[in-house]
Amino acid sequence: MMALLEPGDEVLYPDPGFPGYPSITLGLGAVPVPFELSTRNHFQPDLAEIGSKITRRTRMLITNSPGNPTGTVYTDAVQQGLAELAVKHDLWFSPMKSTRASSTAANISPCCVMPGCKSAL
Ligand SMILES: Cc1ncc(COP(=O)(O)O)c(C=O)c1O
User: Strand, helix or coil at 11?
Assistant: First the structure.
């Protein structure tokens, strides 16, 4: 994040999520912008909400699957949609992974194989 962000850049991150996402963002002078993980959506990111929060200043999209603390594994459709948003808006895509929430699901970010997707990891 230190290498990729400038002060004032906006960073989308999952909430609830790992506390380091907003604190590291703030420490770099960037602006943390949460997107909600809610029981109403089975803790899956809401692509429409994320899309509505992307501005000219948005630089990075942090995802967390399997997620801490929810344990949620994003569906393939959600992963694909997130990577497409990153490409469309030229965002750094930062696919974080909790080692506590173990999963047998194939959980490779589509960003790894999507032309034009800029993975921050
Ligand atoms: C950057 C980062 N560090 C640490 C953690 C915590 O990892 P764990 O849940 O494996 O303890 C997370 C959670 O996903 C993370 O994204």
Answer: strand
Average pLDDT over residues 43-56: 98
Determine the Cα–Cα distance for residues 77 and 28; give it in Å rounded to an integer.
32
Instruction: Kindly tell me if the per-residue pLDDT of 106 is higher than 60.
Output: no
What residue spans define the domains of the chain? 10-119
Could you tell me if the CB of 25 is within 6 A of ligand 1? no
Indicate if the pLDDT at residue 103 is higher than 80: no
> From the CB of 99, is ligand 1 less than 6 Å away?
yes
100 close to ligand 1 (CB < 6 Angstrom) = yes
What CATH number belongs to 10-119?
A: 3.40.640.10
